[in-house]
Every structure is written in C-alpha cells, then in structure tokens.
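Throughout our pipeline, every protein is held as a single compact record rather than as scattered files. The record that follows is passed on verbatim for readers who wish to inspect the format:
___
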Amino acid sequence: MKQLQHISLSILLFFLLRDCKFVEGATFNFVNNCGGPVWPGILSNAGSAKLETTGFQLPPGGSRTIVAPTGWSGRFWGRTGCSFDSSGRGSCSTGDCGSNQVECNGAGANPPATLAEFTLASGPSTQDFYDVSLVDGYNLPIMVQPSGSCMATGCTVDLNQKCPAELRVANGDACKSACEAFNKPEYCCSGAYGNPNTCKPTMYSQLFKSACPRSYSYAYDDPTSTFTCTGGADYIVTFCPGSTSPSSSQKSSRDSSTSSTSTPQFSGGITSSGPGNNNDDSNTSNNNNGVMLQDNSWLASLATGDSASAPTKRPKYPLLLAFSLSLVLLL
C-alpha cells in the first residue's frame, strides 16, 4: 500500500513540476531609456485577465515589472507629453487612451502609437507570439527583448524624423499610418482590400518597413513581423532603446549607471547575431498560415534566433517544488 502511495505521489509530482512554470505566465519588465517620462498603457484583449495596472508613469531611467498570467493576450504602448492635475485627471499628447487618467481602464491607444502585442502560451507545448506594430502609426521607438534564445524585435529608430508631411502630427511628435491619414480601403485593408491577396504594401508602409524591417507595417505584414518563443519566457519592453531619444526635446545626457537594465544599441532596424539568425528579411518564408487574434493582428510562426543580451529565464514557483518533494519524502 505504501509503495502504491509513493507511485501515485510520484506521478502527481511529475505533472506538478511539468506545468508549474506556466502558472505565472510571463514577467514584463518595462524600461524607459527616453530623455523624458513615458506613461505606458496596457490593454488586455477580450477574454484575457486585467493586469495589476492599465497605465502608470515611468520616469527617465526607470523600470517596472508587471506579471501576466498564462494565456494572456494584449498590448502595451507608451504615452508621451502627459499632464495630470492633483486629482489625477489629464491627458497625453501622443498615445492617449481617452480615460483622462493615468490608468487607461480598458481603453486602447488613440493613433498614432507604436504597439507591442503579445499572446502568451497556454501550456507547456505551446508558444508565445509577439510583435511590434506600426499599423496604428508611430510615436516612440520600442524594443521587445525575450529571455533565452528567442529573437528581439521592435522599431528602434526615430520615425518622426522620417515621417512624410502628409502623415506628420502637427507638432512632429508622432507619425500617422496611411489608413489613419487618408481612410481609404487600400491603406486600411478593408472592403475589397480586406484579405492578404488584395491588400499589398503601399509606399507609406514600405517607408515604415525600410526603417523598421521587423515591425508590422500594414495589416497583413505577417511573415517578417511576428515572432514566437517557447512558453515560459519573460520579456523586457524598452522605450527608446539605444543612445538616441525620439526627439531633440527628449535627448538626455543621463549616465548609463542610472538604469540597471542593459539594452543593445541599434542604429536602424533590429540587428542580432548568432546561429540561425539571418538579418536579411528577404530570406524569410512568406507563409501566411497565422492565427487571427481578437484585435485583428495576424500572427505567423517564425523561426527564432539567438539574443545574447536577453534576460535569463528564471525558475518559477520553487516553493511548490520543495513542498512536493517533502510530501514524497515524508510518505
């Protein structure tokens, strides 16, 4: 009888240890390398749990960690030029979510805004999907850096300096998408252009793509823009990665010691090195067998590469492991 108990507990322990790392989901570490404050906004997709906050202030050189549960999906973005009074009411010049508060409370970013989108793995045999999207325009450089050997992605250049006059927001702090600027089906991938066979890159999306080759430039830009990572990864989301802030008004001589998180320096599109990493996007397979998320972001599975500077994976729930082992030893 005692031997049967040992066998039963061993089987239980196996399944607990196999799945425990997915109980927590993922940790997102937000880092502000900009010369001024950024107010990250968070929007969970329909059916996903609300995270501990939907918006907060991040000072220059600051960082904050947010934990998301397994299977979570949603998006992050940075708001700039925000002003809030003593009662906490106010607004932002770019990326504003219309809540008139620091918390976005279930509201998304008003375009134009650079978006970092995620769908976390739902179990040990599934994958995270992630991308940085310019489909709703651009306001800040963002880099997403996964743990382990998964590939970093993002738009790390200042597109505001490259923005055509017809897409430029009046004060030059953001750049509209062609869809937002002209509201035509061929730019919005709607109506007769509502599928990947008819909606093709335009000169505006190609301008975005040439500057940020691993970011979504239009709705069906899947093959070179969506990345996957084995479930259990953690992520660093950096605003203004590298040494150049998005505008001269935000440039800072901040000493690098003020931030404990190191990020690679990029000049242009994402670059990385390592086995299986090819920075020529023309060699990426044009396979559109992606899955449609509830926010209409197409996700296609891509091969992952090495990112030597990525955060290290950390063990999750060690107390559960210790408790389970104690049960086996006591019996």
Observations:
- Residues 2-19 form the longest helix (18 residues).
- Residues 189 and 199 are 5 Å apart (CA to CA).
- The longest strand covers residues 26-32.
- The chain has two domains: 1-23+321-331, 27-315.
